[in-house]
Inverse folding.
């Protein structure tokens, strides 16, 4: 199953993607995680992407399409993949459609996590993530130990208020048009109300997928 998770930053795509990946037994591919690892390891990709990421701006489509193609083409994704944070622009949606066509694989669903901006600002500015395994936490201070892997929780630079505002602005300008693109092209768009507990949202997501 190839699944795309769409929605604004802070809507819970990462958390829900993790759960769905576990339950469906397929990997979650998060371009944000791939890019953050590249930044930490100071690879050419990381060095090129860092400034845009810190500001909360998108990195160029060709970079994202390269990461996405490599991930979908890998043996780990033979049974499918959950794409978290791709696609974020109409050219990325077109690129994904092209790549899947070349690989002869269908796009099974695009889950759109819907939530109001006011809710997101609070969520993101109160969020910390494990610097090692990337697990997000709500309401835990930077410096706390990650319950999952023992790493240290940090506040992402792009979860600072100014970067959050920029990410939301970019979402509405560059990512929201992807919704219309899937509607126009008959893509398998499924809407999920993303307000509520993790369990409730997961149940809605599973229902939307017919699971
Ligand atoms: P995320 O962890 O999904 O919030 O992504 C963190 C940052 O990585 C974003 O704010 C962008 O700078 C970059 N990024 C991740 N995925 C994409 C994408 N599909 N297109 C452009 N930039 C991306």
């Amino acid at each position: 199953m190839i699944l795309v998770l769409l929605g604004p930053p802070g809507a819970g795509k990462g958390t829900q993607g993790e759960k769905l990946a576990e339950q469906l037994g397929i990997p979650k591919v998060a371009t944000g995680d791939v890019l953050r690892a590249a930044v930490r390891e100071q690879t050419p990709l990381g060095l090129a992407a860092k400034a845009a990421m810190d500001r909360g701006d998108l990195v160029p489509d060709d970079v994202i399409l390269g990461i996405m193609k490599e991930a979908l083409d890998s043996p780990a994704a033979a049974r499918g993949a959950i794409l978290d944070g791709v696609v974020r622009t109409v050219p990325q949606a077109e690129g994904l459609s092209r790549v899947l066509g070349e690989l002869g694989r269908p796009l099974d669903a695009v889950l759109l996590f819907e939530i109001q901006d006011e809710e997101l600002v609070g969520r993101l500015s109160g969020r910390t993530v494990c610097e090692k395994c990337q697990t997000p936490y709500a309401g835990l201070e930077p410096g706390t130990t990650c319950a999952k892997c023992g790493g240290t929780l940090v506040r992402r630079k792009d979860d600072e208020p100014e970067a959050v505002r920029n990410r939301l602005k970019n979402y509405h300008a560059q990512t929201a048009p992807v919704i219309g693109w899937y509607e126009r092209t008959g893509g398998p768009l499924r809407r999920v109300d993303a307000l509520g507990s993790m369990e409730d949202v997961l149940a809605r997501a599973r229902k939307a997928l017919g699971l």
Notes: The two ends are 12 Å apart (CA to CA).
